[in-house]
């Protein structure tokens, strides 16, 4: 029995294929709203001067306005964020300032790059358990205001264990390990990275992102005078038009000291600021409120892998979540797999034999950016938007997770 089957043996599923997932039940957990901010370059882009609590405030306010749901109906809020210090203070204060009554509770969650997805999963599980009827998940990250300083220093009682020590190593090291261990060449990484840029460019020019993006009005600070003025940001600014595999070959290795030195600033995810919001509730409640149902949340799986090759997480999480959902890869119309690094992204596609025409069809984190806590929620907004445009049925989202994990979720679009 292989590893995926061993993991799946811990779970049981009453599903019998896609038809079972499409059946409607008043207790279904459904999504009625999924939107995101523009994603902008850290330290350079339109959101660079926006504090984390300001990004939260803006996302909270827009959720009230655009979701058309009375904020007093929210049974709980879960905010996924990774680098924000004192995140609970920022999140609760921002929710109150946005207009959520003090009767609405709030929590924050941090499972590194999956934090936005874990926020959605937490709320979905609370609804499924009957604890709440309506819940809000937010993913947010200001990597401009909170640059990642790397892992902590471990106690010598822990660091003497090699795998434990690996947990704190730089992510670039793990990318090079994946590339070297699984023979993912620089050429192949540059080619798949170029595809990400080309797809994102085409989607942006065609206006595909417009339906999922809510323009953000934030402060911009003059670097010389310190004066802060209001600006409105409405477009992703990390998409590099005209990118080709040949142009990416000219970028020098970011980590020549590790592995084969194949990871570069052109074939890895961009450091980015952004936020996303997903509103969930029971089907019964959505229908009583007369809200459009975008999709049904099916399930989420999380699995562990060796920290030194943490990027391979999706290759185990995706088969596990499909087995839990009772469907096959052939049932999936679109995949949103986080492009933390081209090495691990390409490995996942190859390992699972995924058709590239179904994966990150409008580009991924290499072209759009990867605001850590935001990404999991952003992928849902992006994936459901494109699923609707194509009139597809099943979306799978997935990402690798620092310290050695992978997560994946299944969603079924409503007709």
Automatic annotation (TrEMBL):
GO annotation, cellular component aspect: peroxisome
Query: Which Gene Ontology molecular-function terms are recorded?
Result: acetyl-CoA C-acyltransferase activity
Q: Which residues form the active site?
A: 113, 370, 400
State the similarity comment: Belongs to the thiolase-like superfamily. Thiolase family.
Tell me where in this chain the Thiolase N-terminal domain is found. Answer: 29-283
> Protein name, please?
Thiolase
Keywords for the protein's UniProt record, in alphabetical order:
Acyltransferase, Transferase
Q: Which GO terms describe its biological process?
A: fatty acid beta-oxidation; phenylacetate catabolic process
Which residues are in the Thiolase C-terminal domain? 292-412
> What catalytic activity does the UniProt entry give for this protein?
an acyl-CoA + acetyl-CoA = a 3-oxoacyl-CoA + CoA
Question: Source species, please?
Answer: Mycena albidolilacea
Q: Does the record bear Zinc-finger in its keywords? A: no
Pathway stated in the Swiss-Prot or TrEMBL entry: Lipid metabolism; fatty acid metabolism
């Amino acid at each position: 029995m292989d590893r995926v089957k061993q993991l799946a043996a811990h779970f049981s599923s009453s599903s019998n294929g896609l038809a079972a997932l499409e059946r409607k039940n008043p207790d279904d957990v459904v999504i009625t709203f999924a939107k995101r901010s523009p994603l902008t370059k850290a330290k350079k882009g339109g959101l660079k001067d926006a504090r984390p609590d300001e990004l939260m405030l803006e996302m909270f306010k827009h959720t009230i306005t655009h979701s058309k749901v009375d904020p007093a109906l929210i049974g709980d809020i879960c905010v996924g964020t990774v680098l924000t210090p004192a995140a609970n203070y920022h999140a609760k204060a921002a929710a109150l300032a946005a207009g959520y009554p003090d009767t609405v509770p709030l929590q924050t969650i941090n499972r590194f790059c999956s934090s936005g997805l874990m926020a959605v999963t937490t709320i979905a599980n609370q609804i499924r358990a009957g604890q709440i009827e309506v819940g809000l998940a937010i993913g947010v990250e200001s990597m401009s205001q909170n640059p990642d300083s790397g892992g902590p220093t471990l106690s010598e009682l822990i660091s003497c264990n090699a795998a434990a020590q690996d947990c704190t190593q730089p992510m670039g090291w793990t990318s090079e390990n994946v590339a070297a261990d699984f023979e993912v060449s620089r050429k192949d990484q540059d080619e798949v990275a170029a595809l990400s840029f080309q797809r994102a460019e085409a989607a942006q020019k065609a206006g595909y992102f417009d339906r999922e993006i809510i323009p953000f009005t934030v402060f911009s600070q003059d670097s010389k005078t310190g004066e802060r003025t209001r600006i409105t940001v409405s477009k992703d600014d990390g998409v590099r038009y005209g990118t080709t595999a040949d142009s990416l070959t000219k970028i020098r290795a970011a980590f020549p000291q590790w592995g084969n030195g194949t990871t570069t600033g052109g074939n890895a995810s961009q450091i980015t600021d952004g936020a996303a919001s997903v509103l969930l509730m029971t089907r019964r409640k959505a229908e009583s409120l007369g809200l459009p149902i975008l999709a049904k949340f099916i399930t989420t799986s999380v699995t562990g892998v060796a920290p030194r090759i943490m990027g391979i997480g999706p290759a185990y999480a995706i088969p596990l979540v499909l087995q839990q959902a009772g469907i096959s890869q052939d049932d999936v119309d679109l995949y949103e797999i986080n492009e933390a690094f081209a090495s691990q992204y390409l490995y996942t596609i190859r390992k699972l034999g995924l058709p590239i025409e179904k994966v990150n069809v409008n580009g991924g984190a290499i072209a759009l950016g990867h605001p850590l806590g935001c990404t999991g929620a952003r992928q849902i907004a992006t994936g459901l938007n494109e699923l609707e445009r194509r009139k597809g049925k099943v979306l799978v989202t997935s990402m690798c997770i620092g310290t050695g994990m992978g997560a994946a979720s299944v969603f079924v679009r409503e007709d």
